[in-house]
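Help needed: design a sequence for this.
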């Protein structure tokens, strides 16, 4: 090896050592800075926030006090935040948070099973995801006016929570916010509320969901499994009722849907066993599959004229349903649409209907009259259905109940031109 190559290797080694040394210094300095920000007074652990002009509480210290009061200042600076998970799993019974605090972080008090009393600060603006989730002994909460958004799972599984006082200008109740709050029976809905997220009130015991005129979003499963829910009123400002929004609400008897609602999500009212009557406004043009599945007491329903399709399973197992007037524009009746409607007696199939799905009328034992407005051109399983079978309402009913395949109408050119 010549001297020139040895010199180059020596320079590279020296440079590498220098870089490693510099990185080590920076690491030590960073650790020192971080360590200097973590301080404690024995009761709480604090950390300086970015900018260095305020503190957040990051953890509860070794205190045995079960009734905690958060200080408004530490080391001459304000305490403005409760950090993420700061009190999670703590055995405290009560906490009073000073007005200096404007933010409570994610899961800050989650799993505080013994927590019964919380005083939130007047200046609070941010209440993080899951902040009080699984606080099983918490019975009431008052939200300051600065809290406009209740975030995801904020009070999830607070099984003893009975009373919630919302901020006057609340706009959003996010996904799962009160899911599993079994003691929650009454809500005073603020007239500024815009959104109720998915599963926001799932498995609560709310009795009345007369929603405010300001609401525009009603999420999936929003009130699913609310066993005591009796009355629902949905304003015109809500364009779509979410999937499964009121599914398995066995006490629901009164449903009011305003003109302006356009879509009803799949299984939206499935399993509402006590629901006997519902009127769908003319503004509804789309209904999801299984929307009224297993509504065992449903006797009467008014369908909107704008509807063109009956989806799969829409009235599956609606045992009490006796007759349904189909809108003139219905082109298809989905698979199992009326299956198990054992009280269904009669129906008129509109002129524009060209498809009836498999088992659409299976187990409709009381079906005695099925009137086809146009009995010609129907096939099933690749074979023509005799026109005389469908011309006779009783014979058509027997055939429809027992046919295994879908029924499809084949138009000739003249028929197609007439219907277009």
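Sure. Designed sequence:
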């Amino acid at each position: 090896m010549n001297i020139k190559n040895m010199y180059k290797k020596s320079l590279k080694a020296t440079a590498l050592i220098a870089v490693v040394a510099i990185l080590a210094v920076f690491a030590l300095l960073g650790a020192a800075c971080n360590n200097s920000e973590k301080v404690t007074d024995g009761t709480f652990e604090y950390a300086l926030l970015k900018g260095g002009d305020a503190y957040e509480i990051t953890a509860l210290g070794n205190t045995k006090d079960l009734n905690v009061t958060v200080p408004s200042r530490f080391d001459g600076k304000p305490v403005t935040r409760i950090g993420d998970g700061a009190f999670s799993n703590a055995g405290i019974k009560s906490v009073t948070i000073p007005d200096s605090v404007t933010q409570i972080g994610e899961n800050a008090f989650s799993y505080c099973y013994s927590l019964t009393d919380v005083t939130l600060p007047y200046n609070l603006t941010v209440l993080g995801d899951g902040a009080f989730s699984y606080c099983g002994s918490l019975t009431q909460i008052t939200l300051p006016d600065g809290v406009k958004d209740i975030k995801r799972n904020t009070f999830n599984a607070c099984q003893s929570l009975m009373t919630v006082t919302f901020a006057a200008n609340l706009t959003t109740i996010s996904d799962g916010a009160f899911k599993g709050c079994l003691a929650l029976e009454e809500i005073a809905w603020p007239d500024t509320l815009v959104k109720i997220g998915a599963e926001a009130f799932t498995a609560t015991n709310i009795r009345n969901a007369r929603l405010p005129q300001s609401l525009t979003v009603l999420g999936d499963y929003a009130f699913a499994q609310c066993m005591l829910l009796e009355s629902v009123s949905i304003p015109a400002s809500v364009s779509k009722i979410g999937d499964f929004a009121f599914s398995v609400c066995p006490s629901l008897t009164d449903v009011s849907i305003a003109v302006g609602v356009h879509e009803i999500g799949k299984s939206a009212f499935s399993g509402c066993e006590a629901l006997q009557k519902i009127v769908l406004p003319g503004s509804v043009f789309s209904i999801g599959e299984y929307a009224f599945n297993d509504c065992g007491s449903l006797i009467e329903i008014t369908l909107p004229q704008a509807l063109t399709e009956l989806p799969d399973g829409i009235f599956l197992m609606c045992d009490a349903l006796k007759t349904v007037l189909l809108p003139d524009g219905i082109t298809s009746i989905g698979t199992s649409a009326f299956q198990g409607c054992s009280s269904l007696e009669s129906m008129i199939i509109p002129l524009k209907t060209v498809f009836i799905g498999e088992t659409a009328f299976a187990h409709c034992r009381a079906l005695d009259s099925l009137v086809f407005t146009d009995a010609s051109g129907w096939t099933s399983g690749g074979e023509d259905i005799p026109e005389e079978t469908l011309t006779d309402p009783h014979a058509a009913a027997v055939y429809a109940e027992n046919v295994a395949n879908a029924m499809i109408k084949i138009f000739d050119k003249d028929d197609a031109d007439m219907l277009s």
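The first helix runs from residue 3 to 37.
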